[in-house]
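Q: Start with the shorter request: fold the first protein.
A: Done. Sequence, then structure:
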Amino acid sequence: MRISYVPHRTDSVIEYAISTDRITVTMDGVQDVFDFSTMPDGETSEIHSILDPCPVLNAKRVDGELHVTLIRPIGPRPSDPEAIEAWKRLWTDDLEEVR
Protein backbone atom coordinates (compact mmCIF):
# COMPACT_ATOMS: atom_id res chain seq x y z
CA MET A 1 0.00 0.00 0.00
CA ARG A 2 1.26 3.47 -0.87
CA ILE A 3 -0.02 6.17 1.44
CA SER A 4 0.17 9.88 0.72
CA TYR A 5 -0.58 12.36 3.47
CA VAL A 6 -2.07 15.78 2.79
CA PRO A 7 -1.77 18.38 5.57
CA HIS A 8 -5.06 19.52 7.08
CA ARG A 9 -5.44 22.06 9.88
CA THR A 10 -7.74 20.60 12.52
CA ASP A 11 -8.15 20.38 16.27
CA SER A 12 -9.27 16.75 15.92
CA VAL A 13 -7.03 13.90 17.02
CA ILE A 14 -6.77 11.39 14.15
CA GLU A 15 -5.10 7.99 14.51
CA TYR A 16 -4.59 5.44 11.73
CA ALA A 17 -4.18 1.67 12.10
CA ILE A 18 -3.12 0.24 8.76
CA SER A 19 -3.09 -3.39 7.67
CA THR A 20 -2.86 -4.98 4.23
CA ASP A 21 -5.82 -3.32 2.44
CA ARG A 22 -7.68 -2.00 5.46
CA ILE A 23 -7.41 1.31 7.31
CA THR A 24 -9.03 1.85 10.70
CA VAL A 25 -9.35 5.50 11.59
CA THR A 26 -10.12 6.86 15.03
CA MET A 27 -11.04 10.55 15.17
CA ASP A 28 -11.77 12.07 18.55
CA GLY A 29 -12.73 8.63 19.88
CA VAL A 30 -15.04 7.71 16.97
CA GLN A 31 -13.89 4.86 14.74
CA ASP A 32 -14.52 4.04 11.07
CA VAL A 33 -13.05 1.21 8.98
CA PHE A 34 -12.14 1.50 5.31
CA ASP A 35 -11.73 -1.92 3.70
CA PHE A 36 -10.30 -1.86 0.17
CA SER A 37 -9.59 -5.60 -0.06
CA THR A 38 -12.22 -6.19 -2.76
CA MET A 39 -11.44 -3.04 -4.73
CA PRO A 40 -10.39 -3.81 -8.34
CA ASP A 41 -7.87 -1.78 -10.35
CA GLY A 42 -9.17 1.75 -10.83
CA GLU A 43 -10.15 4.72 -8.69
CA THR A 44 -13.01 5.01 -6.20
CA SER A 45 -15.71 7.44 -7.18
CA GLU A 46 -16.72 8.32 -3.62
CA ILE A 47 -15.57 7.40 -0.14
CA HIS A 48 -18.19 7.64 2.59
CA SER A 49 -17.45 7.96 6.28
CA ILE A 50 -19.19 8.67 9.55
CA LEU A 51 -16.19 10.89 10.34
CA ASP A 52 -16.18 14.56 9.42
CA PRO A 53 -14.12 15.40 7.53
CA CYS A 54 -13.60 12.05 5.84
CA PRO A 55 -9.94 11.24 6.55
CA VAL A 56 -9.55 9.12 3.38
CA LEU A 57 -9.41 11.58 0.51
CA ASN A 58 -8.74 9.19 -2.35
CA ALA A 59 -8.13 5.51 -3.07
CA LYS A 60 -7.08 3.78 -6.26
CA ARG A 61 -5.56 0.46 -7.21
CA VAL A 62 -2.86 0.43 -9.89
CA ASP A 63 -1.56 -2.93 -11.12
CA GLY A 64 -2.85 -4.52 -7.93
CA GLU A 65 -1.17 -2.00 -5.58
CA LEU A 66 -3.39 0.19 -3.41
CA HIS A 67 -2.70 3.95 -3.35
CA VAL A 68 -4.47 5.93 -0.64
CA THR A 69 -4.45 9.62 0.26
CA LEU A 70 -5.09 10.43 3.92
CA ILE A 71 -5.43 13.60 5.95
CA ARG A 72 -2.43 14.49 8.12
CA PRO A 73 -3.93 16.38 11.07
CA ILE A 74 -2.07 19.52 12.05
CA GLY A 75 -2.85 21.29 15.29
CA PRO A 76 -2.88 25.02 15.93
CA ARG A 77 0.20 27.16 15.36
CA PRO A 78 2.35 26.95 18.49
CA SER A 79 3.10 30.10 20.45
CA ASP A 80 6.63 28.91 21.32
CA PRO A 81 9.00 30.36 18.66
CA GLU A 82 11.22 27.26 18.84
CA ALA A 83 8.30 24.93 18.04
CA ILE A 84 7.13 26.93 15.01
CA GLU A 85 9.79 25.53 12.63
CA ALA A 86 8.81 21.93 13.43
CA TRP A 87 5.14 22.86 12.98
CA LYS A 88 5.86 24.44 9.57
CA ARG A 89 7.55 21.22 8.37
CA LEU A 90 4.27 19.37 8.93
CA TRP A 91 2.73 21.33 6.06
CA THR A 92 4.45 19.31 3.32
CA ASP A 93 2.86 16.34 1.57
CA ASP A 94 4.38 13.01 2.55
CA LEU A 95 4.52 9.51 1.08
CA GLU A 96 4.78 6.24 3.01
CA GLU A 97 4.89 2.67 1.78
CA VAL A 98 3.27 -0.03 3.88
CA ARG A 99 4.01 -3.64 3.02
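Q: Next, the second protein, separately.
A: Sequence, then structure:
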Amino acid sequence: MPSGADSLGVFPLPHSHLAIRHLIRQLEIRGRSPRPHAPPEWLKDLLHQAADFFDPCSGDARAGYECRQTPNGWEAAIFLGANECVGGRDDGRIQPTNFRFDVRALLERFDRTESVIWSAFPESDAATPNDRSFLTVKGTVGGERVTLQICAGPPESCGPAMKIYSDGRYELC
Protein backbone atom coordinates (compact mmCIF):
# COMPACT_ATOMS: atom_id res chain seq x y z
CA MET A 1 0.00 0.00 0.00
CA PRO A 2 1.61 3.30 -0.97
CA SER A 3 2.49 5.58 1.91
CA GLY A 4 0.00 8.19 0.65
CA ALA A 5 -2.95 5.77 0.73
CA ASP A 6 -6.10 6.67 2.61
CA SER A 7 -5.42 4.82 5.82
CA LEU A 8 -7.07 4.13 9.13
CA GLY A 9 -4.27 2.66 11.21
CA VAL A 10 -1.97 5.56 12.06
CA PHE A 11 -3.35 8.96 12.95
CA PRO A 12 -1.50 12.29 13.17
CA LEU A 13 -1.24 13.84 16.61
CA PRO A 14 0.46 17.17 17.42
CA HIS A 15 3.93 15.70 17.95
CA SER A 16 3.68 12.01 17.15
CA HIS A 17 1.65 9.11 15.77
CA LEU A 18 0.18 6.11 17.58
CA ALA A 19 -1.00 2.74 16.37
CA ILE A 20 -4.75 2.38 16.02
CA ARG A 21 -5.06 -0.06 18.92
CA HIS A 22 -3.77 2.58 21.33
CA LEU A 23 -5.98 5.28 19.83
CA ILE A 24 -9.06 3.05 20.01
CA ARG A 25 -8.35 2.37 23.69
CA GLN A 26 -8.05 6.09 24.36
CA LEU A 27 -11.32 6.82 22.54
CA GLU A 28 -13.11 4.07 24.45
CA ILE A 29 -11.80 5.48 27.72
CA ARG A 30 -13.20 8.88 26.78
CA GLY A 31 -16.55 7.32 25.82
CA ARG A 32 -16.35 8.04 22.11
CA SER A 33 -16.53 5.41 19.41
CA PRO A 34 -13.66 4.92 16.92
CA ARG A 35 -13.79 6.14 13.33
CA PRO A 36 -16.25 4.43 11.03
CA HIS A 37 -14.85 1.50 9.05
CA ALA A 38 -12.39 0.64 11.80
CA PRO A 39 -10.76 -2.73 11.17
CA PRO A 40 -12.69 -5.73 12.46
CA GLU A 41 -11.39 -7.66 15.47
CA TRP A 42 -10.09 -10.56 13.36
CA LEU A 43 -7.92 -8.15 11.35
CA LYS A 44 -6.64 -6.38 14.47
CA ASP A 45 -5.78 -9.82 15.89
CA LEU A 46 -3.85 -10.68 12.71
CA LEU A 47 -1.95 -7.37 12.85
CA HIS A 48 -1.11 -7.82 16.54
CA GLN A 49 0.16 -11.33 15.82
CA ALA A 50 2.18 -10.04 12.86
CA ALA A 51 3.73 -7.38 15.10
CA ASP A 52 5.09 -10.20 17.27
CA PHE A 53 6.93 -11.65 14.26
CA PHE A 54 9.25 -8.61 14.09
CA ASP A 55 12.61 -9.24 15.73
CA PRO A 56 14.56 -5.97 16.13
CA CYS A 57 18.29 -6.49 15.54
CA SER A 58 19.07 -4.36 18.58
CA GLY A 59 17.26 -2.31 21.17
CA ASP A 60 13.55 -1.79 21.44
CA ALA A 61 10.97 -1.18 18.74
CA ARG A 62 7.29 -0.46 18.39
CA ALA A 63 5.11 -1.76 15.56
CA GLY A 64 2.46 0.29 13.82
CA TYR A 65 0.10 -0.30 10.97
CA GLU A 66 -2.21 1.28 8.45
CA CYS A 67 -5.26 -0.40 6.99
CA ARG A 68 -8.26 0.25 4.82
CA GLN A 69 -11.17 -1.64 3.37
CA THR A 70 -11.41 -1.87 -0.40
CA PRO A 71 -13.90 -3.59 -2.72
CA ASN A 72 -11.38 -6.48 -2.90
CA GLY A 73 -11.07 -6.94 0.87
CA TRP A 74 -8.82 -5.42 3.50
CA GLU A 75 -5.39 -3.93 2.72
CA ALA A 76 -2.93 -3.42 5.56
CA ALA A 77 0.69 -2.41 5.97
CA ILE A 78 2.70 -3.14 9.11
CA PHE A 79 6.06 -1.65 10.04
CA LEU A 80 8.40 -0.86 12.90
CA GLY A 81 8.41 2.79 13.85
CA ALA A 82 11.57 4.85 14.00
CA ASN A 83 13.15 5.92 17.30
CA GLU A 84 14.16 9.46 18.24
CA CYS A 85 17.36 9.88 20.23
CA VAL A 86 17.04 12.27 23.17
CA GLY A 87 20.19 13.60 24.80
CA GLY A 88 23.79 12.79 24.09
CA ARG A 89 25.66 13.29 20.84
CA ASP A 90 22.81 11.87 18.72
CA ASP A 91 20.14 14.14 20.23
CA GLY A 92 17.27 14.67 17.79
CA ARG A 93 18.39 11.94 15.41
CA ILE A 94 15.58 9.80 14.04
CA GLN A 95 16.77 6.27 13.37
CA PRO A 96 14.90 3.46 11.67
CA THR A 97 14.90 0.02 13.26
CA ASN A 98 16.76 -2.85 11.62
CA PHE A 99 14.86 -6.09 12.02
CA ARG A 100 14.25 -9.67 10.99
CA PHE A 101 10.70 -10.88 10.30
CA ASP A 102 9.36 -14.43 10.62
CA VAL A 103 7.55 -14.81 7.29
CA ARG A 104 6.71 -18.47 7.84
CA ALA A 105 4.89 -17.67 11.10
CA LEU A 106 2.88 -15.00 9.28
CA LEU A 107 1.93 -17.36 6.45
CA GLU A 108 0.66 -19.87 9.02
CA ARG A 109 -1.92 -17.26 10.10
CA PHE A 110 -3.49 -17.27 6.64
CA ASP A 111 -6.11 -19.87 5.72
CA ARG A 112 -4.88 -19.70 2.14
CA THR A 113 -2.23 -17.62 0.37
CA GLU A 114 -2.58 -16.51 -3.24
CA SER A 115 0.81 -14.87 -3.50
CA VAL A 116 3.89 -13.84 -1.54
CA ILE A 117 5.95 -11.19 -3.32
CA TRP A 118 9.03 -9.30 -2.18
CA SER A 119 9.47 -5.93 -3.88
CA ALA A 120 12.86 -4.21 -3.58
CA PHE A 121 14.02 -0.97 -5.20
CA PRO A 122 17.57 -0.43 -3.84
CA GLU A 123 18.45 2.23 -6.38
CA SER A 124 15.27 4.17 -5.75
CA ASP A 125 15.42 7.69 -4.40
CA ALA A 126 12.16 7.03 -2.54
CA ALA A 127 11.75 9.19 0.54
CA THR A 128 11.00 6.37 2.94
CA PRO A 129 12.32 2.83 3.42
CA ASN A 130 8.86 1.30 3.02
CA ASP A 131 8.84 2.56 -0.58
CA ARG A 132 12.16 0.77 -1.25
CA SER A 133 11.46 -2.71 0.12
CA PHE A 134 8.34 -4.55 1.23
CA LEU A 135 6.84 -8.02 1.29
CA THR A 136 3.24 -8.43 0.12
CA VAL A 137 1.11 -11.41 1.14
CA LYS A 138 -2.30 -11.88 -0.48
CA GLY A 139 -4.74 -14.48 0.74
CA THR A 140 -7.63 -15.20 3.07
CA VAL A 141 -7.92 -15.07 6.84
CA GLY A 142 -11.12 -16.31 8.45
CA GLY A 143 -12.69 -16.43 5.00
CA GLU A 144 -11.90 -12.73 4.36
CA ARG A 145 -9.59 -11.46 1.59
CA VAL A 146 -6.49 -9.70 2.91
CA THR A 147 -3.49 -8.02 1.33
CA LEU A 148 -0.79 -7.45 3.94
CA GLN A 149 2.49 -5.64 3.38
CA ILE A 150 5.44 -5.91 5.73
CA CYS A 151 7.33 -2.66 5.17
CA ALA A 152 11.00 -1.95 5.73
CA GLY A 153 10.14 1.26 7.59
CA PRO A 154 7.29 3.54 8.60
CA PRO A 155 5.37 5.78 6.20
CA GLU A 156 6.82 9.24 5.69
CA SER A 157 3.87 10.75 7.56
CA CYS A 158 4.76 8.92 10.80
CA GLY A 159 6.71 10.59 13.52
CA PRO A 160 8.90 8.58 15.89
CA ALA A 161 7.31 5.61 17.64
CA MET A 162 9.55 5.94 20.69
CA LYS A 163 11.96 8.40 22.25
CA ILE A 164 15.13 6.71 23.47
CA TYR A 165 17.00 8.70 26.12
CA SER A 166 20.78 8.62 26.44
CA ASP A 167 20.43 6.98 29.89
CA GLY A 168 18.55 4.01 28.35
CA ARG A 169 15.01 5.07 29.30
CA TYR A 170 12.37 5.16 26.60
CA GLU A 171 9.04 6.86 26.13
CA LEU A 172 6.27 5.79 23.75
CA CYS A 173 5.13 8.57 21.44
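Q: Describe the second briefly.
A: Residues 10-172 form one domain. The radius of gyration is 16 Å.
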